[in-house]
Input
Amino acid sequence: MTARELSSRPRLAPGCRLSENNQQRILQMPERALRLNGPSLEIVQRCDGKHTVQQIVSELQQIYSKAQAQKVEEDILGYLALLQKERALDFEV
Amino acid sequence: MTSTISNPLALIAELTHRCPLHCVYCSNPLELQSRSTELSTESWSRVFQEAASLGVLQADFTGGEPLARIDIVDLVRAARSAGLYVNLITSGLPLDESKLAALVAAGLDHIQLSFQGAREELSNEISGTKSHTQKLRVLEWVKQHRVALTLNFVIHHRNIDQLEEMVALAETSSATRIEFANVQYYGWAFANRETLLPTREQLARSIGVIKREQQRLEGRIRVEYVVPDYYAKYPKPCMGGWGRKLMLIAPSGDALPCHAAHVIPGLAFENVKDHGLREIWERSAAFQKFRGEDWMQEPCKTCDRREQDFGGCRCQASLLAGDAAATDPVCSLAPLRPKVDAILAAVNLAPASVAPGIAGPYIAEAPPANEPPTRPSWLYRPNPA
Output
């Protein structure tokens, strides 16, 4: 399963959750953490097992409508691949 | 000055030194703290609150065996409600299914379960107790309760050739991470060093196995590998740099920059019973001692890598060079690197299974004459009162 399958539905893997510290949003993972800002937060908030990758792409293309649509898609797929490598995501078909 | 100090990100909560295991590489100090000195539930709860407001994101519950604390469920709840992510680093020995359910209900985020090997006999030998079968039971409970799981294998001469079996064991479990951590030589591991160090050949083979498994398991299980730094070209950036990212609270409440800082002569540690966490982090002499670069000697002082590895590990410098401010002797640029090379030469030349005897009160019985001479004389870690 890869992030490149646009119909799959990513959700946070066991032990991964969003949290907050001093007004900063954080993706907490087993023994590591990522600070989330802007687009990365928009993406992670949609990794809920309900949004497909395609839906995440479409919604962010609307939010970031000034950016080139193709570039937004590439960035999202790249970020999902990174999270997958971190083992922060499960993908439902 | 204090405004340039970064926040700690993780709090290593050494809840107790009590432990049913006697692992020959235990990272606890040789002088273990007794139960009577341990912090109360209330003190720990306050520490978690203070840690979160200092910017700490995660609490690593460790020990000893953290489950030896009868208030462990309350401690998990306290840390989680303070806003921390809670990792439980455990042998799994004192666990049963109802305890696990209570821990999960209290907000436990992740379990790191230690294994001493993939095979029962060696695992029991290394931990000095019958432990392996119980760990296999724990794997099943963790799967049923859907808790995030890391399997941790401490790697050394005796088990480094079994990595594939360890991966296979992990694949039968619900683990999303495997941590292969080569022994680091402090505490009990320092005492058992000659028996624990892998050979150069073993290390090279293990790195090949790890790379292959990392590729094969990508996206399913994250495989992490901590190299034995005696074989490294450059030292590890120990704890991400002294007083930069981590704070360790010992069972008694002493605040340390790392697990092994006791070995450095002349360092005094503040206690959380007397001072707030922020005050200790920003102002205590122990945390200030090796922050920044002012303390560095040559070759670190002018080295391009000084902001990457911070001169390596201060405790290792103290143990091997007799000077905690020296360049970590495992560094290929260190004046004392020949000392590490001599240790490695002995390991790589000697028939590896024959260990030198180590005098001490906890020395294992010499094996009877009819046993093959493969079982070394381990210095086992005792259980404190």
